[in-house]
């Protein structure tokens, strides 16, 4: 009997024929429409979304106020370039961003299209503000795939044969307490890592030439690794001591995911510059660089920006997203969702040592799988089985981590209690099956 080819498979076959192989396939799900936390695939099947378009739809798929704002703006004008003809949606969004993400006494913002573009511009601003060339970044980091962003990104698989890379970039080990603590408690571990940071001024790069330190307070692709509180405080003090700009990349962790507009607000440690994208626009390509006004204004006229900076369509989508997030108190929902996920997975962890760690802040949760209970022995194989098994049973999720041994949960924050519980049950069942094999 000949097996009938599904519409989803037909779509994936067409993709293989027409789309460059280098465009990754993280999950084999398809979509013809989506709403809230549900994706309808090409065959009409309902899928629960735990990937959120890689953290892009915190406010859910197609939130009605956002769709309405897009439709209204599309009937007015689509593009003039903000450099050429000034329009109100760009200014309004910047006003909203500096209100919810204040950086000191006075804050300014600029808009671009993607997270990588935001990172590129943040580095240019920091260099101009300090008149210095060097940048320090971290292992496990992901900052994008344009040239400077790719240089800052740690994972080699995103950089094969793409060199030479940007100069004057120096990398420190990220203070990943779970993986590298050994027998140390957190206080001792942080003390040792801060010592390494200060020693970098002697053995890595001349601290007087360092323009910026850039990091994700909660690493995304790196495995959902939250930075220890005291380390971030120590890093802020180090930057202040040496006149270095502290840049925080909040592209994946921003816009209510951790229970705040930005995760640095959870830590209470303020950056000089920060970058945003993803859930800011509910799926439309928009990103922002936000920072202290005197730092942002250090950039020479014309040195930052581009043709598509702050598309008016994307600006109104972002403004509508921010209002919608406020109206339904999405940060509060993130805390509730995160607590439910943590409780379920921590209980499962007690029964299965293959789950080495479950961690995160708010609803940004990572589940790390290891061999023999050893943080230094990542279990990649089990993760791929879980992702595949969940896909076959109506749950879309993706992995993370240098070794792809971390399941990350980025469900839309508008997910219903019933959808969340059903999704977690599917995940738990697939974890148990993968462990038994």
UniProtKB/TrEMBL annotation:
Protein name: 4-aminobutyrate aminotransferase
Taxonomy, superkingdom: Bacteria
Species for this entry: Ulvibacter antarcticus
Family according to the record: Belongs to the class-III pyridoxal-phosphate-dependent aminotransferase family.
Cofactor: pyridoxal 5'-phosphate
PANTHER family reported in the protein's UniProt record: AMINOTRANSFERASE CLASS III, LEUCINE_METHIONINE RACEMASE
Chain ranges passing through the membrane: none
Keyword Transferase in record: yes
Keywords, in A-Z order: Aminotransferase, Pyridoxal phosphate, Transferase
Molecular function GO terms recorded: identical protein binding; pyridoxal phosphate binding; transaminase activity
UniProt entry tagged with the keyword Transferase: yes
InterPro entries found in the cross-reference section: Aminotrans_3, Aminotrans_3_PPA_site, Class-III_PLP-dep_AT, PyrdxlP-dep_Trfase, PyrdxlP-dep_Trfase_major, PyrdxlP-dep_Trfase_small
